[in-house]
């Protein structure tokens, strides 16, 4: 093995045949039968590869006298074989396993080339492109179906057969058309054209510029819109509207229809008069007993009375009281006779088998004092050499970065999601200001500005105030802040303008 510059991986079978079981004559006999009957180690090796590699002097330890060219010897006996050990088929059907002869290499077993009919039908998997067929139907020859099984149905001709029955092609169709041409209906009623009546019109009628028969329609300058809603027409007078209201029932939009009835004075002078029959059951105030009489409809013949008392046997009343469901009381279960013999304090059902521990004890627990104490490492560091101490320095990164200087809004990146504490709150979305959708916030009215900027804002807003009066208004707005700053906010300027307007009026 040390003489080879490359590793060799071979499959070695340790099956040594005994001299009494195999000899050269038996192996020669197997060779004469055919190549398929030879064992795997009987493959010829007549090439010069062994002599080139320096292994021509190796002699196999087979003990059967076979030539070296017909035996594959293991040149590296010290290398362990890989995979599962194979089998060696000897002469006479004897199979010897590994352990007797370890220097003979057995080839990989091949798939049988020829299978019997029974083996082919019982194969579980088919070859490439082979349809999966049940093993009982592989060799079965199905009979010719013929005309089919069962009784034929008495079915008439279908639509396709009817169409094909009168179909003609070629010469037959031409001869049939010549025969049909002699009929009057074929000439007057051609297929795909209108009825031919034999009328011959003059050439002027067939001209493209012919205007047609009859008298031309006289068109007016008035359109249908002018007819429906004419313009320049005086409105109807009161007498005309009253006449149309009486004859046609025409009223103005939203106008109430008045019948102009003339009632007697007994009706027109009484504001409480109502048509219809009056309720005979009324109280002193003239109000009816509608709801009250409906609730006491079973009271008897007299309105709002009580029903007549009927005397019956008490057995029916007792039965109704026991079997029925009485108001504000439980239903009688009819077990009073059996409960007479029970001792006082008797309870039905099976006694509880629960223990002495209540639910409160189970919730609160019954641990000893030592187990109820907090753990020693609760809020403390258990590592040796470290101690816990409090510090004023916050740990971590805050959500709002007040510790960093916020850059101006116009210089921030669109992708910058850092919150510096100056972002717009949700209040502008929930309750926007008057000028929120124009890009003007409430803080803009509270921002203090210089006098030239305030003058430009007022002039842009349309305020026509003289220059000296405008300076006085801005000075008054600066005084409203209560400090010595010469800048003022728009709120203060608007208050100063209001004072100046009131003083002018």
UniProtKB/TrEMBL annotation:
<protein>
    <recommendedName>
        <fullName>EFHB C-terminal EF-hand domain-containing protein</fullName>
    </recommendedName>
</protein>
<feature type="domain" description="EFHB C-terminal EF-hand">
    <location>
        <begin position="428"/>
        <end position="501"/>
    </location>
</feature>
<dbReference type="Pfam" id="PF25325">
    <property type="entry name" value="EF-hand_EFHB_C"/>
</dbReference>
<feature type="compositionally biased region" description="Basic and acidic residues">
    <location>
        <begin position="401"/>
        <end position="413"/>
    </location>
</feature>
<feature type="region of interest" description="Disordered">
    <location>
        <begin position="395"/>
        <end position="419"/>
    </location>
</feature>
<dbReference type="InterPro" id="IPR057428">
    <property type="entry name" value="EFHB_EF-hand_C"/>
</dbReference>
């Amino acid at each position: 093995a040390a003489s080879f510059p490359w590793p060799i991986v071979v499959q070695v079978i340790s099956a040594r045949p005994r001299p009494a079981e195999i000899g050269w004559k038996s192996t020669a006999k197997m060779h004469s039968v055919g190549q398929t009957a030879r064992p795997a180690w009987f493959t010829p090796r007549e090439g010069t590869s062994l002599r080139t590699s320096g292994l021509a002097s190796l002699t196999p330890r087979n003990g059967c006298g076979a030539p070296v060219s017909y035996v594959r010897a293991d040149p590296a006996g010290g290398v362990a074989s890989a995979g599962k050990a194979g089998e060696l088929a000897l002469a006479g059907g004897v199979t010897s396993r590994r352990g007797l002869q370890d220097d003979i290499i057995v080839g990989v077993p091949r798939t049988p080339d020829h299978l019997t009919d029974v083996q082919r039908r019982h194969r579980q998997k088919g070859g490439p492109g082979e349809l999966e067929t049940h093993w009982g139907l592989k060799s079965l020859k199905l009979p010719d179906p013929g005309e089919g099984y069962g009784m034929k149905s008495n079915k008439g001709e279908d639509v396709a057969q009817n169409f094909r029955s009168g179909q003609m092609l070629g010469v037959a169709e031409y001869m049939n058309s010549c025969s049909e041409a002699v009929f009057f209906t074929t000439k007057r009623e051609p297929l795909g054209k209108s009825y031919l009546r034999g009328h011959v019109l003059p050439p002027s009628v067939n001209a493209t510029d012919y205007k047609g028969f009859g008298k031309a329609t006289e068109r007016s300058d008035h359109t249908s819109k002018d007819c429906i809603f004419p313009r320049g027409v005086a409105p109807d007078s009161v007498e005309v509207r009253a006449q149309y209201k009486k004859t046609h029932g025409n009223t103005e939009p939203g106008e109430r229809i008045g019948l102009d009835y003339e009632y007697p004075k007994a009706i027109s002078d009484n504001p409480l008069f109502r048509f219809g029959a009056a309720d005979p059951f009324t109280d002193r105030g003239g109000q009816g007993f509608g709801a009250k009489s409906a609730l006491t409809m079973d009271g008897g013949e007299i309105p709002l009375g009580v029903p007549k008392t009927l005397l019956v046997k008490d057995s029916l009343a007792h039965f109704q009281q026991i079997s029925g469901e009485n108001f504000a009381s439980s239903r009688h279960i009819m077990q009073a006779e059996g409960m007479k013999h029970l001792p006082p304090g008797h309870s039905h059902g099976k006694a509880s088998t629960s223990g002495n521990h209540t639910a409160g004890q189970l919730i609160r627990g019954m641990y000893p004092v030592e187990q109820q104490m907090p753990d020693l490492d609760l809020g403390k560091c258990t590592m040796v050499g470290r101690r816990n101490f409090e510090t004023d320095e916050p740990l971590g990164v805050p959500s709002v970065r007040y510790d960093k200087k916020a850059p101006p809004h116009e210089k921030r990146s669109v992708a910058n999601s850092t919150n510096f504490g100056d972002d717009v709150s949700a209040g502008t979305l929930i309750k926007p200001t008057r000028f929120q959708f124009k890009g003007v916030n409430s803080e803009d009215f509270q921002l203090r500005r210089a006098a030239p900027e305030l003058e430009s804002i007022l002039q842009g807003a349309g305020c026509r105030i003289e220059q000296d009066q405008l300076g006085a208004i801005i000075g008054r707005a600066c005084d409203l802040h209560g400090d010595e700053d010469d800048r003022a906010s728009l709120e203060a300027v608007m208050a100063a303008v209001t004072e100046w307007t009131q003083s002018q009026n």
